[in-house]
Amino acid sequence: MSQLQFDYIPLEELDLWVKAIRQGDRPRQVLGLTLFDGSESSRRHPSETLETRAWPQVALPTLGDARTTWVEVWSVPADIGPVVHGETAGVSHVSSADLVFAWLTKPLMGPDVALELATQHAYDAVFHALAELGYPHPLRFWNYLPDILGANQGEERYRLFNKGRHASFAQHAPAIQNSPPAACALGHPEGLAGPLTVYVIASRQPVQPIENPRQISAYRYPPDYGPRSPTFSRAAVAQLGQEDALFISGTASIVGHETVHVGNVQAQTEETLNNIEAVLNRMALARRGKPWRTTDLRFKAYVRHAADLHAVREVILRRLGPSVSCHYLHAVVCRPDLLVEIEATCATSH
Ligand code: 3EB
Fold it and tell me: Which CATH class name applies to 5-349?
């Protein structure tokens, strides 16, 4: 039913674009959006669309020639009924017939903030909102947190984040602890901060998780990576009426559970794409219907060192073709030795 669509729109074109989809031949409405790298640019380009809601804004610098600030916009057809905006216990949400977009931000800086508990409470609130709204099946979580590799109370913050997330899944979603949604978790680069930002797309219907045979499931990582494993699947597929949407989690140069090609950003990018292809191959076996190819997907690449952009992009263009849709962000990946992480998504698009 849903015909979920997503687009990347430069901030300065957002208002006109939203007007255009509302008034098109097949009118659409915004289910959710996230602004990346807004600070400077949103002052230069005030946007009505952004200002009418406290949409998530993530302070990761965009990378690329134009360095445009862009907005990731999720939309659904207008004829499935109007989307409904609301807030439940600090979680903002927009719901449509079969999907909800929900988000929450929590300020985290300051030495006293217990990241583990803050994360747990954030996820508790999200699970509570999803249950109350009737979309109990998260498909895809995006997590952005400041100083992801720093220490908090003597432990690495990403590990604390994992403990908090794990505890919340155990309490609120025990049935999907071993078949969790797709996800990513990225940190702000040095000198930049922001709140913990979590946004999620969830469904009324159960989701099909997919793993990667080249990698140990993240939720089964050995304790070397923290006392609680990261709670995510390599990919998740949602059946939305006649169409399926595919969410491939943040993917990195990990084979088994170990980082490979330490210090070599080209090789890490190649290995990451090998992993994405392995997930697609796995998916072709796991489900009926036409298999997805990399050319069906749109990518978001998180680059650890801005100076590596060209090397990463060269590999992506060579492997995926010159017309690939990939948006680049400067971000800290959650292991110090990972130089790049790439996510991929396929829903209906223009
Ligand atoms: C990895 O494969 C790389 O903690 O939600 C990728 C996707 C990664 C999601 C998360 C972490 C997460 O372990 C890191």
Answer: alpha beta
